[in-house]
Amino acid sequence: MTPPKKRFTQLIEEIDRTPWGPAEQALVADAVSLAVELGDERLEYEARMRQTASANMNGATDVMLNSFAWCLARHDADPQRFPADLEYGGADLMWQFKWMASSLRSSPAFSVEQIAAVLDDMETHYRAAGLGMSGVLTARFEDAWDAGRIDDAEALRVQLETTPRDDHSHCDACGRSQFAGFFADTDRDAEAIRLVEEMLEGGFSCGEEPEHALSRVLVPYLRAGRLDEARSAHLRSYRLAKDNPDNLRIVANNIVFSALTDNEARALAQVERHIPWLAHDGLNVDAHFAALAAFAFALDRVTAAGHGDAPVRGADSPALTAFFGEHDGAWGAAELAAAAWVAAERIGSEFDRRDDTEGHARSLARMRSLADEHYDVPIRSDAFVTTPDSATPGDANAWFDRVMDLAQFGAEHETLRALPHALGIEDPSKLAQLMSMRLGILIALDRADEAAELLPARIDALRAAGLDAQADLEQRLGLATFGLNTADAAAALEDELADAASLPAWSRGDVAISRASLHMQADEPDAALDMAEIAARAFADADDVPLSNTTTLVAVAAVLQKGDVEAASALLDRFLAQDDLSVGHRAQALQTRARVRGGSEDYAEGAADADEASRLLVGLGATTALATAHLLAGALWEDAGDPEKAVARYRVTSRLVAQEGGDQAGADFRLARAMLAAGDAEVAAELLGQVLEREEKAEVPAASRAMTASLLARALGSAGEFGQAVGAFGYAADLFGEAEEHADQAMALTERAKILARFDGHDEAIESLESASVIVRRAPEAVGALADVLHNLGQAYSAKQDDRAFALFDEVAALAREHDAEWLLADVTDSRGRALAQFGRIDEAVAAALTAADGFAVIGDAGSAGGSELFAARLLAGDDRAADAVPIYRSALEHAADHAPLRQVSALELGNVLESLGRQLEAAEVRALIES
What's the pTM? Predict the structure, then answer.
C-alpha cells in the first residue's frame, strides 16, 4: 500500500497536469482530505492553494472563498512556512486576492463595506510584500465597473494604463478582454474591437480567453456591419465556452447573438442547454442576472418568430423554482420569457440597492433596447418544427380518419396517442376498428397482457356493430388475428384457413393477412405471398379498399424479403399510381420506395420520395415517424452528393428527436457530418463537440467515440483551429487503440502528423508517423491505410534528408503494383523524385518525376502529370540546364490546359527560362498565355 505522504505527492503531481474540470476538482478534494487526515497544515496549504484556483476556474465560489481565507490566515501567521508563492506554476496567494473582491461583488449577500474591506486588505498585503499596484487597481476598476460607477471606472482605467505592469498585472489576454468589455459597455465599439483583434493577432490566451473577449465584441461587430467576423467570433467563443458552467456570462453573450441574428431556433436550443447552469454556483448571482436577461431576450425573439408556445426543455426543473417560481408542467417560451425578465429585474434591484446605483437597471435597459436590432447571419445548427394548424382534427370522426392514416402508415406510438380522441365516435363499426388498431399495436409493442384484457371489449363492439361472424372468429382465435406470434396462434390460423369457405369474405382476408404476417416474421416470403394473394381476393370481394391496399404493402415487403428489388419497385410504382390510396398508405409506400431506390443507388429519386413522405406525415402530426422520414431523406441527399439538402433535413430530425426522445447524438452526428461536407466547419465542430460530450457521459463504446473525435478533428482543422485538431486526432487515436481498430488508429495519428508538419513540428510529426507505422502493420488487410502511413512517413523522412525514406517508398510502390493501384504508384514515384532532389541527386530526381508524370498521364490525371513535369523542369533549370528544361515546361503547359493556376505558373517560369536563353520572341508568346 502506498504511504499517505507519497500518495499526497502523487495527487499533487496529477493535479498539476490535469486540465480544469470535474476530474481535477475531485483530485483536489482528495488531496485536501488526505492532508487533513495527516494533520499536516503545510501539506494542506499546498492542496488548498490549488483548491482556490480550481474553484475559481470551475465556478465553486463558496469553496474558493473558504479555501482562500484559510490560506491567507496561515500565510499571515507564518509567511515562511506558508509562502505566498509555492512556485508550482499556478496562481500565487497575492494573485488569488484579485478573485476575492469580484467574487464578493457577484452576490448581493455581501455588503459594499465587506467588498471595500477586501480591496483595502488586498492593497495592504501588496504594499507589505513590495508588489506593484497594477493588480490592486485592476480589482478596484472591476469593482467600480460592476457596481455601475462608470465615471470612477473610467478614471481607474486611465490610471491603469499609466501604471507600470508587473507580475500581478492581468495577462495580455485578460487585460485586453476586460477593457474591451468596458468599451463595449460604454458604446466605444471600435476601441473594443481593436483590443480584441490585437489579442487575437498576438496569439494571447488564458483560462477563459479568447472566448470571453470574443463574446464581448459580438454586438460591436454586428453594428459595424462586419457580419462574417461576428459569425466566426460567435462560433469560436461558444465552442470554447459551452462546456464549463463557470462560463455562464460568456454563454449569455452568445445566446443574445443568436437571438439578434434571426437564429431563434439556435437561441432556444442554447437556452435549453444552459438553463441548468443557473443552479450551478449559488453565489455567482451577477452571472445569473446576465443569463436571465439573455434568456428573456432570446425567448422574446423565439415568441416573435411565432414559437411562443414552444416548450423550453429543462426549465421545469425543481432546481430552478427559485428563479421562475412554481409552474404546472413544461414552460412555454413566451411565459418563461416573462418569468425570466421578472427574475432579472428582481436580482438587478437587489444589486442596485446594495451599490446605491442604477448599474443593473441600465444593463437591463440596454438589453431591452436590442429589441429593435436585427442582423442576417444564418447559422444552421437548429430548426423549429412546425405542424400546420389544419393538422389538428376537429371532432371524433376527423380523429378516426387521423387514427386510420397513422395506423396505415405504421406510426404505432402516434396512433396510440391519437386513439382516445376518436373513441367518442358514434358509429359502432368504426369503434370496433379503433379497438382493432389498439390491439394490433399493443401486440407489436410486446404488451400482450394489456391486449388480452381489451379483447373482450373488441368482441362486444363487433357484436354491437352486427359483425357476429367476425366476433365468433376472434372468440375462437384470441389474439392470433392481431399479430400474436406463437405456435398455437399459427396453428389456429391454419385451422381456420382450412375451413375458410365458411367465413365471410372480410374474415377470410383477415385470417389470411394475419397468417402472412407470421410467415414474414419467420422469414418465409413465398408463403407470405401466397397468403397475401388470398387476402387480396377476399378484401376485394368484401369491397374493402383500405385493407386491399394494406395487403399490397404486405406483398411488397415479402417481395423485398425475397431480394427481388426489381419486382418490388415495379409493384410500388403501380401502387403509387393508384388514386385510392389513403395518406398513410401513400406515405408508407413512398418511404419504402425511397429505401429501395437508395439501395439501388438512385439516391436523388429516393430522397425526393422521402421528402414527399415527410410532407404527408407533417399533415398527420406524426412527429416520431416524421423524424425517421427526415433522417432517411437527409441520408439519401447526403449519398446523392447534396449536403446542403441533407443539412436541412437533418436539422429537423435533430429538433424532433430532442422533442420526442431518441438518438440525439446520432442525429446530431449526421447533421454535423453533412455540415462539414457543405463547408460549414465551425458549426460542425460545435455540434460534434456536443455529440462527443453526450457519448462520453453515456459511456458508449470507444470505437464510436473515436469516430466522433476523428470527425471533430477534421472539422476543427477545416475551421482553422489546428491546435485543437491535433489534440482531437490524438484523442481519436487513443480511442481507436482502446477499441483495437488499428488501421483507424494509425490514420488518426497520420492526420495528426500532417498538421504538426504543416506548422514545422517535424520531429513530433515523425514520432507520430513512426508510431502509426508500427500500429498499422497489426491490420495487414488494411492495405490502403498501410500505404498511406508509409508514404507519409517516407515524405517526412525525406524532408529531414533521412535516407530511410527510400525503403518506405519502395514498399509503397510494391503495394501499388500488387494491387494495381496506378495512381498511387505514380504518386509515390513523384515523392521519390522529390526526395532524391533533397539529396542533390538531380538526374535521378528528374527521371523519377518524369516517370511519375507518364503514370499520371496514362490514367488521365493531367493536372498531376503537369505538376510532376513542372518539378522536373525546375530541377533542370536550377541545375544550369535551361535548354533541357524547355521541352518539359512545354509538356507541363499542355497538361495544364484545364488547370489555370498550374498553367500560369508554368508559363511564367518558361517565359523566364526562354528569356535567359535569349529566345525573346518565344518568351513573349508564352507570357501571352498568362494574360489569356
Answer: 0.83
